[in-house]
Amino acid sequence: MQDKMKIGIIGCGSISGAYFGGAQKTDALEIKSCADIRMEAAQNAAKKYSCQAVTVDELLADPEIELVVNLTVPRAHVEVGLQALQAGKHVYSEKPLGVSFEEGQKLIRLAAEKGLHVGCAPDTFLGAGGQTARKAMDEGAIGRPIAGTAFMCGHGHESWHPNPTFFYDIGGGPMLDMGPYYVTALVNILGPVKRVAGVTTKAFEERIATSSGASGQRIPVKVSTHLTGAMEFANGAVITMIMSFDMRRHSLPCIELYGTEGSMKVPDPNGFGGPVLVALAKGEGWQEISSAFPQNARMIGVIDMVCAIRSGRAHRASGDLAYHVLEVMTAFDKSSQTGQHIEMQTTVERPNPFPSGLNEWEVDD
Q1: According to CATH, what is the number of the domain 127-288?
Q2: pLDDT tens digit string along 111-137?
Q3: Which residues are paired to 280 by β-bridges?
Q4: pLDDT tens digit string along 261-317?
């Protein structure tokens, strides 16, 4: 490994703590500076994590910073990402890559023109749960994958989140908020999506917040809050999906996959760990598969990206992966609005799996 890569963080909200903390687990990188439109937030983070608080312009102008971690709100992801690319920096963004397929395309095209790298959350598929499920599928644990289900259902954020408004604004909703975890996990295990058929709706035109700090706030709902449909993967598997903020209670699993020889339960893709269970046609019910992978945590995708840039290999939580996932997610509304299957314009190679036996926070170079 060459010298540590110096990086900067833009956006010092609640999720930034996981990134600052993860950066302390590796020798591959160093957070030099952080910035936020609220200077007080940047100063608090800088004091806590021993880096510099600067303005966004100062961070982007710093020639020592090679990579920007973009933790702004979803509607600003592409705008800030484009600024970083124009400044000659690699970019790793929080999910989603953008709020529309066309917006994400601008980021990917500019990065290609400038010879720079784009990475994007989620990196949860690089945890023990996602890597164990991938290995089991690759080894034929349930035979050829035929079908599956993917469910993320609840009643939204207004009852508990201190600032729930943006979850119902453009760039929010259950699909762009939680869908990246589920679709990315499925692409990691099964490969790219071929086409999508969807039906989408919303139960309420307005939500009333009851959470502490926002109680009584009236929130206009500008996005679909219940999306359902099917994804046909290039390998032939058909996955039924529901992403909903309109369900009070349910008993649906997170992800289950069904193959010619058995079935697999994949743990919650919003986390890094959890058991992978397999039930075979001639078996005795669900059996847990032993894992040879560390759990990891947020920031492992950035660490892998930094190491990949230094060594010249492909990184796993890539912009191309996030771009394909963004097209898949936005296809549900497009299908519902047009009454047609939506054929994917993009495709992507599955990210290379981690080798067995790595320690926490290690990648394979």
Answers
A1: 3.30.360.10
A2: 999 999 999 999 999 999 999 999 999
A3: 262
A4: 999 999 999 999 999 999 998 877 999 999 999 999 999 999 999 999 999 999 999
User: How confident is the model at residue 2, as a pLDDT?
Assistant: 58
Domain-wise residue ranges, the chain: 5-120, 127-288
Q: Judge whether 315 and 279 are in contact, CB under 8 Å.
A: no
CB 294 within 8 A of CB 359: yes
Q: CA-CA distance, 293 to 334, in Å (whole number)?
A: 38
Q: Is pLDDT at 166 greater than 90 in this prediction?
A: no
Rounded to whole angstroms, the Cα distance separating 364 from 82 reads 30
One-letter amino acid identity for 325? Answer: V
Residue 1 has a pLDDT of 46
Neighbours of 159 (CB within 10 A): 15
Strands across the sheet with 238-244, in order?
287-288, 277-280, 262-266, 255-259, 145-153, 238-244, 226-233, 193-201, 342-343
**Which residues is 70 bridged to in the sheet?**
10, 93
pLDDT in tens, 74-96: 999 999 999 999 999 999 999 99
**Sign for the pseudo-dihedral over CA of 290, 292, 295, 300:** negative
- Residue 304 belongs to what H/E stretch? helix 300-311
In this structure, the chain runs to a length of 365
Structure-token match 């601008």, residue found: 106
Residue 335 identity (one-letter amino acid): S
Our CA dihedral for 304, 305, 310, 312, rounded to 10 degrees, sits at: 100
Nearest to 321 by CA among 186, 215, 204, 141: 186
0.70 surpassed by pTM: yes
**CATH class (in words) of the domain with range 5-120:** alpha beta
